[in-house]
Amino acid sequence: MNDGLDQEGALRTTAPLKIPVRDILPDAASVLRAQGVSGPARKKVADLGRQALALLESLASPAAVVEGVSLDEFMEVFRGEGLNESPNPIEKIFPFASGLALFAVTLGDKVRGKIDALFTTDDFALGCLLDTAASLAADRAAAWLEARCSAPSQRLRARPKGGALSGGRAPQEIRPLRYSPGYCGWHLSGQKKLFARLKPERIGLRLNESWLMSPLKSVSGVIVTAPASRHAVEPSYGFCASCRNRTCKTRSGTRPEGLGKEAA
Amino acid sequence: MIYDDIARRLQEGDEDQVPRLVSQALAHGLAPEEVLEKGLIAGMNAVGVKFREREVFLPDVLLAAKAMHAGISVLKPKLAQEGLPARGKVVIGTVQGDLHDIGKNLVAIMLKGAGFEVVDLGKDVPPERFAEAAEKEGAAFVGLSALLTTTMPVMAKVVEALRSRGLGGKVKVMVGGAPVTQDYAREIGADLYAFDAASAVERAQALARG
Ligand code: B12
Ligand code: SF4
To answer: Which of A86, B125, B130, B165 is most buried, by the most CB atoms less than 10 A from its CB?
Structure first.
């Protein structure tokens, strides 16, 4: 594994990548916030938050695979097992992409082992804080990759065949944004073709019969580099009613702190 | 009063003082069920209320739960001699194909805190194992967790497996997890759906009361 980056910090490889754990550690305040702690935490809780982050730093070994694909290749992956919702917001965005990169990131399986161990010793609070910290870190690892698919250094740029970039119109802000199977109408079974194409087994990822990845703290999907305005999604699809995330509302404008400022 | 001390220390998540006070209460000849109800469970209920009112947060609840477990481990030998108070047993697990268990763990911890006896089957649990365990344990409830739309259908299979053992209606099925809804619970014939751990406890208590 290598760091796979050029001097500008952009991706330039399809070989497995090691992500520096410090780059993706969430801060203590966001871990506590994600656990619903509003306002200042009492000392005992704040200490546990810091302990969880120290554990995460020592146990996580974040790794990724990423591969640029053409529009046709992506359409084949996206079609998956034919179970996607239709219409869905993703199919309206990717035809306008100037770059499409499939990706999978994982924190490895040591974190999960530690969480289980903490629950067996009744250390529920620390176990739960570590779980939350690891979830945030997995997401930040995906954001880390996204930031490195940023314009102008799109080493993974894949020219869309028959693709429709904003030909002739005024230049627009271009930005990469990630989309994952299991979200926004892209059926979870899409993981099958994504795995077949990307081979994340190279970083220790496995897919089970429900298309769930092991280790659990992992994220997969596609990074779509497209005009920023194309990423704006109105959450008015039938399936939006049961979506607990609603990340469409926040994602297109923001990125976790410290990641990808260069693209913002 | 020692019960108040136990309840207060429990709310502070003091895992050292709670078992010490429980031992002290027993040494004074207080009944173990009373120590459980008026000390530990009362403390945990108070934490539950404060959590709902947003006066305390999840880590505080979990610290209290650890203190509660420390207290229960002192009480357990005595309670085992005299028989556990009947709040009902819950067999709980994450359904087959699913490895998400943090939510299920929270529900289990809260149920224990409310005085239910919990048998945790872990994650990736096949339908038949739920039914088997429910029968063997004489469970009042089976709790099922699923975080994926692809694993939700396994919940229906558990309901089926319980029916085919003649446990349908006798063992109440409660379901939860991000994609699960009240409508889905109704559709598969589950008895109870809860959005989060706190409401899981409230609803289980209400159903147990009948
Ligand atoms: C954090 C998170 C992650 C984290 C880690 C997941 C984890 N838990 O370890 C990361 C970032 C790694 C991740 C990855 C993925 N995730 Co995710 N993730 C979430 C998120 C935002 C929160 C899950 C969580 O941990 N919640 C905290 C716990 C405490 O809550 P909970 O489990 O829901 O439990 C509570 C209640 O549900 C209830 N409850 C739970 N069980 C039970 C049982 C009973 C009996 C009762 C009564 C109540 C009850 O009480 C609990 C406590 O209050 C959810 C969306 C959401 N808002 O729920 C998506 C979600 C689970 N993820 C989803 C998806 C799609 C994925 C990915 C497949 C995306 C991808 N392609 O990479 C991957 C899969 C990872 C894998 N290994 O395969 C989808 C699944 C949808 C689907 N179609 O099935 C969800 C629902 C998001 C969505 N689209 O709405 N994810
Ligand atoms: S509400 Fe959820 S499913 Fe709908 S567009 Fe937004 S993120 Fe996607």
So the answer is: B130
ipTM over 0.90: yes
Is residue A144 a contact partner of residue A174, using CB atoms and an 8 Å limit? Answer: no
Output the CA–CA distances (angstroms, integers) from residue A216 to A106, A110, A134, A167, in the order listed: 8, 11, 10, 42
3-state secondary structure of B193: strand
Please report, for residues A221, B204, B205, the alpha-carbon distance to residue B41 in angstroms, rounded to integers and kept in the order given: 45, 15, 13
- Which pTM was predicted? 0.92
Out of A1-15, A33-47, B129-143, pick the least confident.
Answer: A1-15
Query: How confident is the model over A36-54, as pLDDT tens digits?
Result: 998 888 999 999 999 999 9
Side chain identity at A156, as an amino acid letter?
L
* Closest by Cα among B9, B74, B76 to B39: B9
Give the end of a domain, one of B25, B53, B82.
B82
What is the CB-side half-sphere exposure of residue A115 using CA atoms within 13 A? 25
CA distance to partner chain B, nearest, from residue A42 (Å): 9
The answer to whether the CB atoms of B148 and A119 lie below 8 A apart is: no
Give chain A's domains with CATH numbers. 17-251 (3.40.109.40)
Q: Does B178 touch chain A (CB under 8 A)?
A: yes
Amino acid at A28: A
Q: Are A163 and A147 in contact (CB under 8 A)?
A: no
CB contact under 8 A, B66 and A123: yes
Q: Residue B12's domain spans which residues?
A: 2-82
CA neighbor of A123 nearest in space, from A55, A60, A59:
A55
